Amino acid sequence: MLAAFRGVAAADDHRPEDWIASTTARHGAEHGEGLTTLPDGRLLRDALRDDPEGWLGPEHAAALGSDPALLVKLLDAGERLPVHAHPTRPFARRHLGCRSGKTEAWIIIEVRGGDAGVHLGFTRDIDAAELDRWTQTQDAHAILACMHALDVEPGDAVLVPAGLPHAIGAGVFCLELQEPTDFSLMLEWAGFDLDPAAATLGLAPDVARECVQRTALRPHHLDALRVRAAGASSSPLGLESALPARADPFFRAERIRSTHSPVTLDPGFSVLVVLAGAGRITSERGGSLALRRGGTTLIPHAAGVTTLSGSLDAVRCRPPSVEAAVSDGLAADLAGLG
C-alpha cells in the first residue's frame, strides 16, 4: 500500500516505514539512517540548526530552538506489529538521556484484509509479575487477549500516549505523527525477526517495565483518544482538526479538503501529505509546487502564507503549539538538557 500510495514500484518488502522531514536517526543505526536530505544536499537537521527562525518561526525557535519536535511517517507494516510501548518524556530523560519521549498518533489512510485493526492498552490492571511472565514466555495470545481491539477505517485517528502498550494490524496503512525519537520497548519479539537483547533498549527488564502503563484503559479514556472519520471538529480556518486536543503538547494535524475554493494556510513549519486528488500549493514568497496523491511537501515558516488550490484531500502535520509545549514543560526540558 505504501508503494502504491507513493506511485512507485515496491523495491523492498521489508521497509514498512517512510520517514518524512526527519531530523531523527534510526535507533542503533550507523551513518544517520533516517535523516532527511534536502534537494540541495544538506541534512534537514543541519538546515534547521543554521536557520531555526526561518524554518520553524521565531516563537518556536525562541522556545524550542532548532528542534522541530516532530517526526512524520508513512507506515504499512504488512504484518501485525509486535506489542510494544514507548518511553514517556520523564522516563526518556531519566534513563535514556533524551529530552523527548514518544507519544504518537495514527491517521488511517487505507485498510485491507481481515487484520485491519489496532490493539491499544490493557482492559484490566496487570501486575508486574504477570507482565514479566508474558514477556519471558512470549505469550502473545495472553497479551493480546487483555488488550482493547479496535476496528479502524480511513479517516479515523488514534492518539497513543507514551507508555501505552499497542500494536497495529497487518491491514492498516497510516500516517503517523510522533515525538522525534526512535525508542521502542518490546513486549513481544518472538516470530518477528527481532533481537531479544534489544527489546529493552539496553535497560534492565525491571527498569524498562516501569515505562509500560499496566493500569486498565477505561472506555471513557479510550474514547478520548479517538477521532472517528465523521467526527472531526472544524477550526476557525475552515480546516478540520484531525487529532484529539490532548495531542497539542506533542503535535498537531489538520485535515484539508479543497474542491472549488482555495484553502489558505497560516505560516508555520509543517509537512503536507496529500491523501487524494491533485492541485497546487503557492506561497506568498513566490514559490509554487504541483501536488498529487502520495506527495509530501515540507513547508518552512519563511514561506509565509500558503494557498492550496485544486481538488485535494490532505493532512497538514505540525509541531506542538508553543503555548501547549511550554505549559507541558517541553520548553523547560529542552533548556535544561541543552
Instruction: Write down how many β-strands occur, each being a DSSP E stretch of 2 or more residues.
Output: 19
Largest sheet: 8 strands, antiparallel
Structural class: alpha+beta
Might you state the CATH topology name of the domain at 2-227? Jelly Rolls
Brief sketch in words of this structure:
By secondary structure, the chain is of the alpha+beta class. Helices cover 22% and strands 29% of the residues. It has helices at 2-6, 44-50, 52-56, 58-64, 89-96, 128-137, 140-145, 205-209, 219-224, 322-327, 330-337; strands spanning 17-20, 71-76, 84-85, 104-111, 117-122, 147-151, 157-160, 166-168, 172-178, 185-186, 226-227, 233-234, 240-241, 252-258, 263-265, 270-283, 288-292, 296-299, 306-318.
Keywords for this entry:
338 residues, alpha+beta, 11 helices, six-stranded antiparallel β-sheet, single chain, 29% strand, eight-stranded antiparallel β-sheet, disordered C terminus, Jelly Rolls
